[in-house]
Design goal:
Protein name: Limonene hydroxylase
Structural class: mainly alpha
Helix content: 55-70%
Number of domains: 3
């Protein structure tokens, strides 16, 4: 695989990629990321069968075609390869398998396989040998998020000090690969690496929350902010880290970060003179929302979050948010064609108490398949404006195409954009009995299961007196055509006035 240094591999299609319309597809590395972070590793017999297959191939030479084919098929068809790797490697270390032959097998799997399972197995086996023998192979394969975790472990196992290789690789990946690598780099004592993690390395395309605590704590954010000079990059990183820590989620958060209040105090002090862009405003808004919560579910963190401090932080945030320059900046950014800038502007307007509904409806008239904008619009409606949103949706969305008949589709991908728009529209119509029936009628005949479930839930929430005259007959037709037994049961329950679940 010949690749230019620094080239992006996120869009590289692997040879075994299957493109099936509506099929649930994980982003590269996502399945292994979820398993490694959120699923308890269980003991299975996979490691034993893989060990037997590896031993047979190594004993017969790597060109023993029949044994190799069995090993390849086993690695290709194993869904829980990650859970078996540690046990497999342990068994190999305790065995007398010929190292020279095993290295040839590993290289053949890693570099010549057409399926990701055998490639992952090959990379893992390479970790049994000195990294110098195949460093470029690992660094190349590791640049694809699907293989980064395996390459990182192999690089770590194959040498005493892997920091330089892991850091080099971490700069070239952005998703789950970045998360895996930074989690390993967080154990280093090298200041230049920890400073990179603090300022930049925590950013990833999954969730910054996975790495925010590691960056702030191991990068010593408090000490960095206490220096005589705080540069713009560090200031920006501080705001983004605080937002991630306040958000909580899949990893340690503000409740684990003992320097949180001290960092917040310094950040707000710096913001008095240096608040200059919408990202700063978003961070200040996140602080305000956090300290204004009357009863956070986890209680208040230890270390400086007493009532007096919270009141002071809230007052400082309000002063910063009340500055006259923010509204025109936010409204201008709201017109941006850049989706990231638009998202930032929309959130800023929310902090400032500025309605974006009119702008959103103008934009949706031109580009109606932007589901996120429908979500933002519906979130802002009241009794006087809900009709305007629904009328526009009926006018601009291809409801006849959506109502093509029931199926078992998951509705993922750009080809299902109209169906995704209906999700955000219909899910809130339970608050408005009798409003939006054309959208519900289209959803109830959609091939996407989620659309049908959403429409039934909304209908069930409406009093029967609010049902349109043809709602009952439409629902009966939908029941007779419904291919999914669970959805059919919910439809029947809604028709009969019973609880859906």
């Amino acid at each position: 695989m010949q690749l230019a240094e620094g080239s992006e591999l996120d869009d590289v299609v692997l040879p075994d990629e299957e493109h099936v319309a509506g099929q649930l597809k994980f982003a590269s590395g996502a399945w292994d990321g979820v398993v490694s972070h959120h699923v308890a590793i269980r003991e299975t017999d996979v490691a034993g069968s893989l060990f037997a297959a590896v031993k047979a191939v190594a004993a017969g030479g790597w060109l023993a075609r029949r044994q190799f084919a069995r090993l390849y098929e086993r690695a290709k068809s194993t869904d829980d390869l990650l859970s078996a790797i540690d046990s497999l490697i342990g068994r190999i270390r305790e065995s007398s398998i010929d190292g020279g032959r095993l290295h040839k097998v590993a290289m053949h799997l890693a570099t010549d396989s057409a399926h990701r399972g055998p490639v992952k197995l090959g990379i893992a086996l390479l970790g049994l040998f000195p990294a110098d023998l195949h460093r470029e192979v690992l660094l190349t394969l590791g640049r694809h998020e699907e293989f980064t975790l395996y390459a990182a472990v192999a690089l770590d196992n194959g040498q005493d000090h892997a920091d330089d290789d892991l850091w080099h690789l971490a700069k070239q990946v952005r998703g789950w690969g970045r998360i895996h690598l930074v989690e390993r780099l967080a154990g280093t004592e090298r200041r230049e690496i920890l400073d990179w993690v603090l300022r930049e390395g925590f950013r990833n395309t999954v969730m910054d929350e996975y790495l925010a605590y590691l960056a702030a704590s191991r990068g010593d954010l408090l000490a960095a902010l206490s220096a005589d000079e705080v540069d713009d990059q560090l200031l920006r990183a501080t705001g983004d880290l605080l937002m991630a820590l306040f958000a909580g989620g899949p990893a340690q958060d503000i409740h684990d970060y003992t320097d949180g209040a001290a960092v917040t105090r310094i950040y707000l002090t710096l913001m008095r003179d240096r608040a200059s862009d919408l990202q700063h405003l978003l961070a200040v808004g996140a602080i305000r929302d956090f300290v204004s919560d009357s009863a956070p579910s986890q209680g208040w963190p230890d270390g400086g979050w007493d009532e007096a401090a919270r009141l002071q932080f809230a007052a400082e945030c309000q002063q910063l948010i009340g500055r006259a320059g923010w509204p025109p900046m936010a409204l201008e950014a709201l017109e941006s064609a850049d989706p990231v800038m638009f998202w930032r502007a929309e959130r800023a307007c929310n902090i400032l108490g500025i309605s974006t509904l009119h702008t959103l409806l103008q934009q949706l008239r031109v580009e109606p398949l932007e589901s996120g904008k429908w979500f933002s619009a519906v979130r802002q409606v009241d009794r006087d404006s809900i009709g305007e949103v629904i009328d526009l949706a009926v006018e601009v969305l291809p409801l006849d195409e959506v109502a093509s008949g029931p199926g078992r589709e998951l509705g993922l991908g750009r080809q299902w954009a109209a169906h995704q728009c209906l999700d955000f529209l219909v899910q809130d119509l339970d608050k408005w009995p009798g409003v939006g029936w054309p959208l519900i009628a289209a959803s109830i005949a959609s091939p996407v299961i989620r659309n049908r479930n959403m429409s039934v839930r909304t209908l069930a929430a409406w009093p029967r007196s609010a049902w349109p005259s043809d709602a009952e007959s439409r629902l009966r037709q939908a029941i007779s055509a419904e291919p999914d037994q669970d959805v059919k049961q919910r439809m029947s329950a809604a028709l009969e006035g019973r609880p859906l679940d």
